[in-house]
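Task: sequence design from structure.
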């Protein structure tokens, strides 16, 4: 590092820019002059000259992040230009400077490596805990280096310069073996270090990315020399590394590092050499000894992975699992695990196969397990880990022998295999697939996801599933799912195992495979992972096949098959599956066939010393092994039993001599597997000592004392086991065992010889263990005639049953355990069954929350006319019983304020969300606005108390009550709330506000509605004709209204029930804001409460009507069947309404049913008059009448009230009609009606009545004004239609009310006959008439002569008209027809919204909000979280949700494309209704894809808004503390 000498102003400028850590203005200033070519060259050279200084400043900087960004901001403009980079490389030694600067930078944080030989190690590694690595401070320099290596000319210079390569390998070796993990054996580690993030990031960025950059220039044959250079210096660095850590032949136990960048450089350049440069592999590979050393550490990592998953590293904390997962994770795998496995494949293809296989089992610590004896001692592994480690070892071998990623697959095949593996684990979205497919980390190389090949492969292997919405409320994204033929032909469990970060994903893939096979009818049971044919091996790697054909592997396979057959412990189905997989791999990849005859002839003599005659699996499979000498613990069953003298069936010869004889006679394999360890040592030693004289002596290295010679442990003794099996016979017996039947295997070729010629039969491709065994036996038979003959012979012998196991005490214990488990399971089943029956009743009530359309028939007790008393189950204490005054039961309810009804408009087209300045939404035509105007107008001209009974409120801020249908004792509920209050767990709701979740179904609730004692419903048989005449009933109704206090619960004596009713009434009142309950001119007047209470009933009825689609055509029971709480609600309201007496003089009932005697009394009084009857809202009058009657109400009184009110409604309709038609029409109707006036049915003819109304109203100044809008009423039908439409809303509300009070289903009908059906259902129609002559007037039933009544009502209007002629008409014409409430319509493309709103200024604070949002109900633009628009500590969204939706707000966040819901004091993220072309959300617009409206999702949002189910369906709620 030379001293900096400045010769010009530019150098001085840059020096101070660096010194002050790149101030933004200086950076901009220096960059602005770059267009000048001379300046650019001068500046670049100066920048390079100061490179070391930049590094030093960066290391010292406290704001290294900001500084890094600014450095790269400059350097990327200088070094991305290839011409400039080449020039600076030649003239200023850019490469030397960069590599040296990086080397110096890392040298500041080196520590001694503790790998292998802690005391004497000379190797140094980077310390991952240092800030330099933890904060990625090195990345700007590394990224510059990667940037310049992307230029061919620069990379070429680098690869040709030996000195640079040496320095670079030196740099890489700093990372070799970093972040060493030592297995904790005693205590759990106190502090879990998170340094591994830094280590993985450093290897990926500082080592792997430059490597991928260099590899991208080694694509053609001409670049062979570069590869040779890299491999040569890489091997030198590795040799130095082995020397530095004092490595001999065994890795130190209980240590693992995941970082071997030198190994990976070596591997990746080898792979490139063979794949692209046609180099002969053997010319660049080192000698055997080096290969042996090279394989040790990558193999150690594979074994450690298995140990970590077997929970052997559990004391090291979670971080070690994190490392194991990162090592295989998609961004790292092709720079980590893939090169490691490839390197092991290369070593395996060149080393002695027996040596390699035994190394694997020794590394995985399962050598001791591979014994024929039923018991063994494992000196290095606890028995609970044996099974998973054995599975790990076999799975690793399968991976090693099956993967072809670097051994012959093309890039497109690799991409396809990766994609299939990911899709088989789970359906994936397009973006997660892009993320999960490992890509070359260097951006300028090869396959880039999203490229053409990616899309074409995706469409070839996967089907797109459009985004659907699940009923549970979880939003589905658009997903890709594997095509059927992919499951059928391409599902590759090996690839899935390689790529799974979580073990559960392997299971998930198998479950999905199972489901596919069941669905397509290919296999009904539980299938095993299918065997998949592999891409042919590249000729350079043919040596890998030797592993499958070596005696050691065959002995292991034989032993394991035998152990599984004999049910030894610690074996699993997975072990068997992998064993069969390996056998099948061996049969698929068999070496050249030897002739069968020669084999059989020379067979006997050749095999004196070992188990198998040759190394070919095909011939070894049929080789019978008779006796095996095993070393077993003294306690083993093999030692104990004395054999009978005659036969040696159980494997022990009767005397020593006969044992010796048998040894000479039979080829008993005395070389059991664990002596193979010794054999392996010998080979290793031979290679190391090849040049010395003692080549043949085995010199044991000091490290392996743990593996003492077999027999050193004193309790072991030798026994001889009679086996008499071959691999083939074991397989056939296994087939019997798996099928549970004797002789279940029958050679298929005996029936059908073709099987041998075309062995690829589809029926063998999917199936379980039996299928796998059949497939293997078939392949064995196809490959050799002898095998075929032997299989037939074995099958001919009737196989004796498997000998019963002698049970040792240890096994007895496990059996007891099994029995105990079985009993526990049975007990559990019993409990569950009991619980299920309890829950059945719950399931009946808890029908789908999500679909308010579900018709759940109400069970009407038809058998008995009067049901004695309703019985309720308390879901807390589980007792059943009636609700009593002392111990009332209540329904779990959720009370919420709602302004949904107020959002109805009278246009059928929903309003659009404004996306230009011209489109604006004004709330004048909403239902709420019009009702508001009407009430205000009435209050101006009429008496306040009377106005407050002439309308309903609750269109805005009405209280909606819903229940899940579960009941509980109110005292139980109180103690439940108490326990919730003391519960410290953070709940999503506020217990202090009375919120809780239903103890049974967990639905959100905030109050309990007491159930009124008794049956609640008078289910009298429907009588079409009441025996009493109308006059009597009218009188009875009046009398009943007079007697206050005859409410069955007397108010004077306070009972628990009445207290609860009062408290729930308080809850209902406090649910909505005060402004929605106070409409009287005198605040706190009782009229307010009266109005509020019957309006609650009205709101609930109207909302139920909306949920049914605005009419009752569908009929059926109440939408929610048992979920309706209207009945209980009426009781509570009625009890409170009856506390207010209505002065009999003002009782509306009198005005409806009696002609007034004294007409003048009214004019005398000074105060404002009462509201004329014709201005009163009939539905409100109905509720007032019903709720002020004593409960339960009699059916006949109910009908009487309806009949009377219908006459008023009809008269209102006629009056409105008369105002709407033109003067000529009016005269015509007046004349034509007058003629028919005296006919018998005059009172039931609308013409007559209309004419009477017109003549009566003409007395005042009502028709004087000029017509505003004319309704051309020409023919009779249109008048009839108008009248029916006017009356329908009332009939619907009344029918619903009747349904809730008295039960009985609502009839379903066509839309055009709704009026008739409802009228007859309500008892207005005396008897059915044929449709063509039906008129609405035939439903009229006048309690007193019609013309008198009408004259009286009209006179009220006439007198009002004299005073205020301008208002008469406006109040007469009520708008009865409302469309259903809708959210605003959104544009197709999200960009339309984004462009208009994201720069729009807020109307309140006139600034552009940081987080703009728009209300989807009314289109108001608001600042989310904006402090600028805060009022009394409420932010604008919360405030708006209270004003617009009475506490419910639906906002679209413009900058995030998601919708948030505010409900009271909580909020939740609902999700997005805009999806990209692949059906995915783009939250926060991170991916920047074009987004389009998803109509289905928007429909669901609207549905949840209208049905008030946000609280139930969306799960993730949190408090917003008024800060939104």
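Answer:
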């Amino acid at each position: 590092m030379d001293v900096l000498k400045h010769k010009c102003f530019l150098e001085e400028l840059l020096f101070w820019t660096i010194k002050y850590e790149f101030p933004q203005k200086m950076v901009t200033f220096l960059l602005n002059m770059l267009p000048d070519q001379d300046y650019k060259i001068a500046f670049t050279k100066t920048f390079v000259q100061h490179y070391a200084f930049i590094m030093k400043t960066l290391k010292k900087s406290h704001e290294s992040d900001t500084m890094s960004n600014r450095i790269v901001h400059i350097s990327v403009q200088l070094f991305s230009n290839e011409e400039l980079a080449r020039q600076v490389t030649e003239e200023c030694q850019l490469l030397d400077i960069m590599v040296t600067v990086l080397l110096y930078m890392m040298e500041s944080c080196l520590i001694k490596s503790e790998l292998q030989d802690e005391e004497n190690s000379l190797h140094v590694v980077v310390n991952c805990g240092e800030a330099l690595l933890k904060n990625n401070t090195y990345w700007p320099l590394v990224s510059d280096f990667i940037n310049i290596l992307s230029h061919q000319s620069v990379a070429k210079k680098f690869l040709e310069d030996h000195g640079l390569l040496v320095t670079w390998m030196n740099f890489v070796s700093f990372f070799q073996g970093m972040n060493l993990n030592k297995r904790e054996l005693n205590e759990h580690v106190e502090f879990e270090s998170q340094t591994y993030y830094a280590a993985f990031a450093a290897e990926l960025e500082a080592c792997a990315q430059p490597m991928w950059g260099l590899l991208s220039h080694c694509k053609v044959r001409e670049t062979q020399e570069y590869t040779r250079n890299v491999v040569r210096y890489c091997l030198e660095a590795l040799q130095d590394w082995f020397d530095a850590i004092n490595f001999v032949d065994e890795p130190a136990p209980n240590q693992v590092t995941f970082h071997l960048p030198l190994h990976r450089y070596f591997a990746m350049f080898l792979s490139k050499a063979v794949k692209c440069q046609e180099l002969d592999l053997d010319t660049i590979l080192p000698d055997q000894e080096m290969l042996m050393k090279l394989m040790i550490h990558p193999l150690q990592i594979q074994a450690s992975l298995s140990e970590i998953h077997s929970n052997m590293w559990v004391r090291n904390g979670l971080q070690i699992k994190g490392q194991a997962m990162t090592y295989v994770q998609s961004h790292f795998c092709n720079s980590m695990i893939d090169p490691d496995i490839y390197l092991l494949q290369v070593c395996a293809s060149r080393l002695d196969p027996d040596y390699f296989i035994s190394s694997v089992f020794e590394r995985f610590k399962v050598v001791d397990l591979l014994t024929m004896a039923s018991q063994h001692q494992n000196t290095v592994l606890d028995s609970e880990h044996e099974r998973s480690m054995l599975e790990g070892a076999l799975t690793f071998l399968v991976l090693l022998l099956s993967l072809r990623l670097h051994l012959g697959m093309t890039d497109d095949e690799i991409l396809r295999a990766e994609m299939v593996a990911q899709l088989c684990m789970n359906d994936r979205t397009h973006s997660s697939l892009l993320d999960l497919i490992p890509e070359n980390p260097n951006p300028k190389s090869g396959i880039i996801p999203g490229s053409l090949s990616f899309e074409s492969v995706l469409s070839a292997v996967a089907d797109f599933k459009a985004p659907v919405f699940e009923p549970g409320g979880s939003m589905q994204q658009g997903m890709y799912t594997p095509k059927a033929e992919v499951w059928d032909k391409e599902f590759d469990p090996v690839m899935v195992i390689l790529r799974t970060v979580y073990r559960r994903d392997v299971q998930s893939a198998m479950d999905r495979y199972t489901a596919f096979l069941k669905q397509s009818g290919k296999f009904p049971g539980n299938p095993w992972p299918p065997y998949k044919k592999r891409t042919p091996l590249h000729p350079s790697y043919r040596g890998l096949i030797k592993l499958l054909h070596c005696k050691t592997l065959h002995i292991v396979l034989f032993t394991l098959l035998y152990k599984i057959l004999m049910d030894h412990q610690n074996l699993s189905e997975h072990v068997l599956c992998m064993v069969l997989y390996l056998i099948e791999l061996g049969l698929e990849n068999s070496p050249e066939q030897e002739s069968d005859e020669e084999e059989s002839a020379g067979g006997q003599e050749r095999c004196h010393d070992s188990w198998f005659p040759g190394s070919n699996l095909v011939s070894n499979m049929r080789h019978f092994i008779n006796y095996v000498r095993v070393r077993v613990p003294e306690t083993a069953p093999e030692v104990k039993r004395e054999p009978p003298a005659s036969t040696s069936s159980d494997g022990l010869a009767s005397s020593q001599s006969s044992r010796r004889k048998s040894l000479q006679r039979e080829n008993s394999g005395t070389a059991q597997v664990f002596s193979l360890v010794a054999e392996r040592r010998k080979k290793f030693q031979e290679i190391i000592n090849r040049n010395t004289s003692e080549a043949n002596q085995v010199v044991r290295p000091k490290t392996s004392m743990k593996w003492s010679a077999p027999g050193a442990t004193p309790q072991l003794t030798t026994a001889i086991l009679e086996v008499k099996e071959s691999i083939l016979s074991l397989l056939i017996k296994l087939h019997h065992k798996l099928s549970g039947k004797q002789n279940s295997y029958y050679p298929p070729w005996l029936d059908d010889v073709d099987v041998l010629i075309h062995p690829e039969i589809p029926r063998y491709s999917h199936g379980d263990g039996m299928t796998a065994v059949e497939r293997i036996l078939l392949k064995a038979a196809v490959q050799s005639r002898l095998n075929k003959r032997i299989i037939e012979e074995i099958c001919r012998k009737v196989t004796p049953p498997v000998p019963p196991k002698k049970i040792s005490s240890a096994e007895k214990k496990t059996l007891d355990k099994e029995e105990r488990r079985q009993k526990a399971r049975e007990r559990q089943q019993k409990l569950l069954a009991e619980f299920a029956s309890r829950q059945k009743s719950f399931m009946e009530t808890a029908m789908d929350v999500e679909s308010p359309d579900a018709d759940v028939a109400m069970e009407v007790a038809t058998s008995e006319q009067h049901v004695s008393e309703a019985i309720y189950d308390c879901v807390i204490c589980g007792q059943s019983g009636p609700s009593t005054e002392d111990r009332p039961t209540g329904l779990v309810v959720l009370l919420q304020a709602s302004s949904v009804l107020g959002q109805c408009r009278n246009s059928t087209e929903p309003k659009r969300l404004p996306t230009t300045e011209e489109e604006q939404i004004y709330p004048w035509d909403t239902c709420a606005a019009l009702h508001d105007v009407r009430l205000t107008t009435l209050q101006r001209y009429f008496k306040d108390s009377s106005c407050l009974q002439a309308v309903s409120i609750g269109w805005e801020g009405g209280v909606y009550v819903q229940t899940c249908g579960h009941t509980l004792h109110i005292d139980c509920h109180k103690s439940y709330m108490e326990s919730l209050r003391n519960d410290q767990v953070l709940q999503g709701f506020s217990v202090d506000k009375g919120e809780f979740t239903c103890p049974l179904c967990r639905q959100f609730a905030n109050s309990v509605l007491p159930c009124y004692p008794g049956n609640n419903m008078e289910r009298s048989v429907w009588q079409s004709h009441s025996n009493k005449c109308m006059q009597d009933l009218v009188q009875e109704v009046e009398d009943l209204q007079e007697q206050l206090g005859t409410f069955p619960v007397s108010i004077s004596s306070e009972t628990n029930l009445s207290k609860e009713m009062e408290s729930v009434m308080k809850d209902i009142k406090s649910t909505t804001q005060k402004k929605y309950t106070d409409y009287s001119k005198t605040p706190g007047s009782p009229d307010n409460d009266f109005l509020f209470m019957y309006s609650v009933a009205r709101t609930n009825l109207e909302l139920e009507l909306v949920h049914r689609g605005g009419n009752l055509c569908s009929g059926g029971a109440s939408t929610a069947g048992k979920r309706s709480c209207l009945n209980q609600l009426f009781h509570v309201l009625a009890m409170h309404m009856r506390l207010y007496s209505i002065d009999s003089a003002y009782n509306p009932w009198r005005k409806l049913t009696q002609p007034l005697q004294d007409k003048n009394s009214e004019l005398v009084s000074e105060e404002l008059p009462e509201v004329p009857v014709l201005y009163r809202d009939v539905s409100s009058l109905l509720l007032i009448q019903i709720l002020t009657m004593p409960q339960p109400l009699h059916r006949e009184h109910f009908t009487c009230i309806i009949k009377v009110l219908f006459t008023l409604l009809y008269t209102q309709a006629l009056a409105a009609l008369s105002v709407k038609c033109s003067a000529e029409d009016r005269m015509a109707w007046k004349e034509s009606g007058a003629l028919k006036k005296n006919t018998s049915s005059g009172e039931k003819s609308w013409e007559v009545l209309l004419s009477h109304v017109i003549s009566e109203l003409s007395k005042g100044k009502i028709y004087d004004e000029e017509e505003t809008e004319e309704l051309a009423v020409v023919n009779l039908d249109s008048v009839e239609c108008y009248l029916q439409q006017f009356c329908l809303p009332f009939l619907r509300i009344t029918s619903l009310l009747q349904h809730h009070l008295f039960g009985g289903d609502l009839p379903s009908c066509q839309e055009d006959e709704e009026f008739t059906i409802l009228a007859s259902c309500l008892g207005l129609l005396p008897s059915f008439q044929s449709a063509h002559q039906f008129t609405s007037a035939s439903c009229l039933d006048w309690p007193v002569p019609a013309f008198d009544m009408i004259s009286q009502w009209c006179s009220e209007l006439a007198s009002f008209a004299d005073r205020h002629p301008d208002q008469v008409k406006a109040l007469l014409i009520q708008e009865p027809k409302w469309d259903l409430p809708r959210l605003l319509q959104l544009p197709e493309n999200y960009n339309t919204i984004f462009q208009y709103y994201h720069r729009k200024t807020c109307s309140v604070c006139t600034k552009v909000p940081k987080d703009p949002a728009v209300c989807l109900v009314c289109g108001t633009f608001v600042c989310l979280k904006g402090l600028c628009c805060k009022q009394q500590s409420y932010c604008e969204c919360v405030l708006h949700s209270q004003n617009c939706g009475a506490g419910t707000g639906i906002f679209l966040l413009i900058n995030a494309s998601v919708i948030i819901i505010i409900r009271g004091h909580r909020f939740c993220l609902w999700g997005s209704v805009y999806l990209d072309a692949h059906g995915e959300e783009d939250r926060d617009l991170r991916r920047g894809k074009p987004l389009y409206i998803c109509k289905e999702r928007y429909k669901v949002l609207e549905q949840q808004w209208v049905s008030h189910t946000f609280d139930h369906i969306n799960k993730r709620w949190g408090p917003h503390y008024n800060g939104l």
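Residues 612 and 620 are 6 Å apart (CA to CA).
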